[in-house]
Write a structure and sequence with these properties.
The complex is a heterodimer. Chain A is mainly β. Chain A contains eight helices and 38 strands. Classes of the chains: A mainly beta, B mainly alpha.
Chain lengths: 597, 533
């Protein structure tokens, strides 16, 4: 009788799957321990980096943002508690050479608060002074535009030789035309890109989907939400709490938005061809980063969209102005066990040097970053576990890249992380708001191992990070890293690469193809290896990389290059000497480019 | 004691078919007390002597003999009942105890024991009456309180249980009862607080720790549950139930670093335990050890072939090990066992493709996609419904209506959602729309008593008593404890001048809630109407 109550408590029948008396827990466990729970929730300690010890030293990274003058804190929502999901996602960043002086400038997207736009809100443009420092030229540029900015896509949409910017917002997205004089003009309305209603723009990419030499535009949207009547954190509303703590709602439980494709009319305007292309009827995914590349190597641009808590999308180009969505069929929509993943950022690269572009996708906390191997026909296999990435699931991960950080000729993995619910860390030590950066070194055998403190304190420094852009801001031949940090100044990680490894950088200029050469695919052959890269307009998390394709070559001192232009032509350039930047103009070969390495 | 008496006692014991085969030989001193003639007191003493030695059958026999000499003794009946209860003979225990309380109704112990015996016989209603009586005798008796509270909780009367227990003296069982009642009302924060306070005073209590862990899990405070579990296991390292619970919680929190070795250890100690085999298999699969996962999952499904999730996981593992035929068999078995997770279809699609059956594979993929869509719809519906509830709670019925409508767009067959919308429409005065929505609700679910009741009310308001009666009858048919519907039924019958039937209905309502004001008023009204005829 004494234990009657305890037993009864344990044996109480659960009215809903959430009840967990001990007996019903067993029953619930049998159901709950489905693939949805086990593979995505189990985590273990990060495995030791013992297997990487056999390799030569790796790069060291130093955060030089402060000394470089990137000191402005990027306001984005409340750093301590978030009421709505719009505060959580932002935002991307970009390396771009807006003034064509051969030095990468920096562009960071900023946000606002729920209450309004305090001083300092909005985007930031920094001009590269070529001496390791930058100057804030935001005001002159006209790019400030405070709001809930999300993603940026860089591309010369009007083929006038200057890189333009498309920025997505919760609200009205913006097209900024580069005037060539350090200023930008908002030409959204003039270009026919005014949206008929408010949407939550997120991923965006310029893409020449019809191979007419002009950059079209794809935009993914995140969720349907109207802040005027959106639900607030609550234990009473599903998807408005996390492990017993009220948090901002979503994305589950929120409506699925449409996604949009615009055709470039070649006269500075665009036409919405979403319905005509088949993209308009797609529903069922919360869209994030959009990456355009030729997934099936048929010479036409496809579009991969990382999606959150819903199947990611792979839009295969039908060559006739339409697309078909085949991510599920091709193994890249969900995890290999059929679990929906919280897809955020995308790294595009050739990790196993087979000449085909693989996909790396960052995910939500308690989920490993996914690596999807491409066999060249856009048939993907989830190789996350095999690649040694399965153990790291501690953080919600965002910006990422499959990039060669140490110039050894093998792409590595870089990831930034940060919470979506800063309230959690007060309750759970397991969910700190600020997270370190993560590097996984390519072990040259299809697997990766985490790199720890040897990469420098800038890697273990903790932030709530989002966008990442990779580029060579100091033109010394290695990839540096720009990071957008929510409610903090950005990080600029200068790469101090170990000596002995060679490299090549390739600037492409289209003539028949779009001038930015976005969508070009380059195969580099060096030291018996082959590596593919594609020039993208957006990658990582809602961000844009240095458009000069960078290949680490290891000990090889020459490289054979094959360029496949987006309009279909191919050119080869054998025995190019390493350790230089070359500029290749479509049809004209290697030209004298901008003078700096 | 004469040899004849002793023999008589032994024979009478042996003759009792319900007694265990014991030798009932009292001590020589007690035997001596039976001289020259046995008395009731002497038998009672023998009974107590046997009772102290746990020879309950012998004790019962001795008390029976005592009662034979002193019939009408409440005490002896109680002692007989106690012995029979201790011997596990509930029916006879109840008889004896009923005798005792009939003779001396204010004896607490007899009442308590009678209640417990009735509980054991699942005669809940009678047990409840006895708990109530015991509590009336001594409102501070922890056992009476515990029994009353348990009975109330079993009947879903959580609020009454809380009222009863709130002022109760600190006691582990009563604390657990109070927590249980709060859980019943879904006031988990209070349940947690009550248990935390009690656990602070009794940090080694396993029942309290277990209960608090359960509450944490209900609150989705999985990390807190894990911490508590770890502490409890540390204090009670050999408690197998705690170990099992800890493993389950570790799996829920995704802590495989601790779960994996614990799972191995528990399996080593119980190699045929389904749950341990299953969890080991799943953990091994997650860590990429498909070979071990296969072994353990195969053993698990052999031991308990009725768990769909085990077949599902085994199917995934076999698929990864390159055995698509085996995988197909397992996945199809999972489906046969009723699993509805769309991921099963995804997995089956992969396997069918590997087996070259692309048509069927495509079908499975479509089913998977449909399943995801349905899940999304359900999530959206739940979200909107909850938002609607909040709006209603804040008195904003106008705001709730579009939210409920959007929820219904995503879950059109949810009768309860229809009812919620109807309530909101009622509050905004849109009776026509309300009626339409209620009709739809009862079409989907004729047993939705609240909707039937409300439709009856609307019909009654428009003067159609016959239709009203029909709906009220449906309401009380599906929910016989729905007092309001009984009162409404009585009223509709009264309006049709069917006073006798109306009186029956209102009487039923008053049986459910003796102080229901509407029922009392209607009863009066009906009585007056009848008197005037």
């Amino acid at each position: 009788m004494m234990r009657k109550s305890a037993k009864a408590l344990r044996d109480m029948k659960p009215p809903n799957p959430g009840d967990c008396t001990r007996r019903s827990l067993l029953q619930a466990i049998s159901v709950a321990l489905g693939p949805l729970v086990i593979p995505s929730r189990l985590w273990s300690l990060v495995p030791s980096a013992a297997s990487a010890k056999a390799l030569p030293p790796f790069s060291r990274f130093v955060d030089v943002a402060q000394s470089a003058g990137l000191t402005h804190s990027m306001i984005y929502g409340d750093p301590h508690k978030n009421t709505y999901i719009v505060e959580v996602n932002g935002a991307g960043c970009a390396f771009l050479d807006y003034d064509n002086d051969g030095w990468m400038d920096v562009f960071l997207l900023g946000g606002r608060t729920l209450e309004g736009t305090p001083p300092g809100s909005g985007n930031r443009l920094y001009h590269n002074n070529r001496d390791g420092t930058f100057t804030d030229v935001t005001e002159k540029s006209g790019l400030s535009e405070p709001g809930w900015a999300c993603g940026v896509s860089v591309g010369d949409y009007n083929n006038d030789g200057f890189e333009d910017l498309y920025i997505t917002y919760y609200g009205q997205n913006k097209l900024f035309r580069n005037n060539g004089d350090g200023t930008f003009t908002d030409v959204t309305a003039k270009a026919g890109l005014t949206q008929p209603r408010r949407l939550f723009g997120s991923g965006c990419t310029f893409v020449d989907y019809d191979r007419d030499g002009w950059l079209d535009l794809f935009v993914s949207n995140y969720v349907e939400i109207d802040l005027a009547n959106a639900a607030k954190p609550s234990m009473d509303i599903p998807n408005c709490n996390f492990e017993g703590v009220p948090t901002n709602c979503g994305p589950g439980g929120l409506g699925f938005p449409p996604h949009t494709l615009y055709h470039n009319n070649r006269d500075g305007t665009f036409t919405d061809v979403s319905n005509k292309s088949g993209i308009g009827e797609l529903r069922g995914s919360y869209g994030f980063t959009a990456v355009a590349f030729d997934a099936d190597e048929d010479g036409w641009q496809d579009i991969f969209v990382a999606c959150d808590a819903s199947p990611s999308m792979l839009l295969i180009n039908n060559h006739d102005g339409t697309f078909r969505e085949e991510a599920l069929l091709r193994g890249v929509a969900v995890s290999k066990d059929g679990n929906l993943m919280g897809g955020m950022g995308v790294g595009l690269g050739d990790y196993d040097l087979d000449g085909h572009l693989d996909i790396l996708k960052t995910h939500f906390v308690n989920q490993p970053t996914g690596l999807y191997h491409n066999n060249g026909k856009a048939e993907f296999e989830d190789v996350t576990m095999m690649a040694g990435l399965g153990a790291e699931r501690r953080f919600s991960s965002w910006g990422t890249g499959l990039v060669d950080l140490d110039n050894d000729g093998y792409p590595d993995i870089f990831i930034v992380a940060g919470t979506v619910a800063p309230e959690l860390e007060r309750i759970y030590a397991k969910y700190p708001a600020r997270n370190p950066r993560l590097i996984f070194r390519n072990l040259r055998n299809g697997t990766f191992a985490p790199v720890g403190d040897e990469a420098g304190p800038a890697i273990s420094a903790r932030y709530v990070s989002r966008g990442v852009a990779f580029g060579d801001f100091d033109n010394d031949g290695d990839l540096d890293i720009l990071i957008m940090n929510r409610s903090d100044p950005p990080s600029l990680l200068r790469n101090d690469v170990p000596t002995g490894n060679h490299w090549i950088k390739i600037r492409l200029e289209g003539t028949k193809s779009n001038r930015s050469a976005i969508g070009s695919r380059v195969l580099a052959r060096y030291g018996g290896k082959v590596q593919a890269q594609s020039l993208t307009s957006q990658c990582s998390f809602l961000s844009s990389n240095d458009p000069r394709l960078h290949f680490g070559l290891g000990p090889a001192t020459t490289v054979d290059l094959e360029v496949r232009w987006p309009t279909g032509a191919s050119e080869t350039f054998p025995k190019i000497a390493a350790d230089q930047l070359i500029t290749i103009r479509e049809g004209d070969g290697i030209i004298k480019g901008r003078p700096f390495r | 004691m004469s040899r004849r008496t002793i023999l008589g006692l032994v024979l009478s014991i042996a003759a009792n078919a319900s007694l265990a085969a014991e030798t009932c030989t009292p001590s020589p001193a007690l035997r001596a007390k039976m001289q020259p003639k046995p008395t009731a007191d002497a038998y009672a003493e023998i009974g107590t002597w046997f009772g102290n030695r746990h020879q309950f059958a012998c004790a019962a026999e001795a008390y029976r003999s005592a009662l034979g000499l002193s019939p009408g003794s409440a005490r002896l009946s109680y002692l007989l009942g106690l012995s029979l209860y201790s011997a596990g003979n509930m029916p006879h225990a109840v008889a004896a105890l009923e005798e005792s309380v009939a003779i001396a109704p204010d004896r607490l112990k007899a009442r308590l024991l009678l209640a417990a015996a009735l509980e054991r016989l699942q005669r809940k209603a009678e047990a409840k009456q006895q708990w109530q009586a015991a509590w009336k005798i001594d409102p501070h008796s922890p056992v009476a309180l515990h029994g009353m509270a348990s009975a109330l909780i079993d009947d879903g009367e959580y609020l009454r249980a809380i009222t009863l227990l709130r002022a109760a003296p600190p006691n582990q069982d009563l604390t657990l009862d109070l927590a249980h009642a709060y859980i019943g009302l879904k006031i988990l924060d209070e349940a947690s607080k009550v248990l935390q306070d009690a656990l602070a005073g009794h940090p080694s209590s396993v029942p309290l720790a277990t209960a608090l862990i359960s509450v944490n899990l209900k609150q989705l405070h999985n990390q807190a549950a894990e911490t508590l579990c770890a502490e409890a296991v540390k204090k009670h390292p050999f408690d197998p139930d705690l170990q099992r619970l800890y493993l389950q919680v570790l799996v829920l929190t995704g802590n495989s670093a601790v779960a994996a070795p614990l799972a191995k250890k528990l399996l080593a100690g119980s190699p045929e335990d389904f749950e341990f085999l299953y969890i080991n298999g799943v953990l091994e699969h997650d860590q990429g050890d498909s070979k071990s996962a296969r072994e353990h999952l195969e053993q698990a499904v052999k031991i308990n072939p009725q768990v769909a999730a085990a077949h599902f996981h085994l199917g995934i593992v076999l698929s990864q090990l390159g055995d698509p035929s085996g995988a197909k068999e397992q996945l199809e078995q999972a489906l046969k066992l009723g699993t509805t997770e769309p991921e099963v279809h995804f997995e089956l699609g992969k396997v069918l493709r590997a087996l070259g059956d692309n048509q069927e594979a495509a079908k499975e993929v479509r089913t998977y996609q449909q399943g995801l869509q349905e899940r999304n719809h359900r999530a959206l519906a739940a979200n909107r419904s909850a938002q609607g509830d909040k709006a209603m709670a804040a008195g904003r019925a106008q705001d709730a209506i579009p939210l409920y409508r959007e929820a219904l767009d995503n879950a059109p067959d949810d009768a309860l959602l229809d009812f919620k919308l109807a309530v909101a429409l009622d509050q905004t005065g849109d009776i026509t729309a309300e009626r339409t929505v209620l009709e739809k609700a009862i079409q989907l679910n004729p047993d939705l008593a609240s909707a039937q009741n409300q439709l009856g009310f609307l019909a009654s308001r428009s003067g159609d008593s016959a239709t009203a009666e029909k709906h009220f009858r449906e309401a009380v048919r599906s929910a016989p404890g729905f007092t309001e519907a009984w009162v409404n039924l009585a009223a509709s019958l009264g309006l049709q001048s069917r006073f006798s039937e109306a009186q029956d209905a209102v009487q039923y309502a008053l049986q459910l809630e003796p102080q229901n004001p509407q029922a009392l008023l209607l009863k009066d009204t009906l009585a007056k109407a009848l008197a005037q005829r």
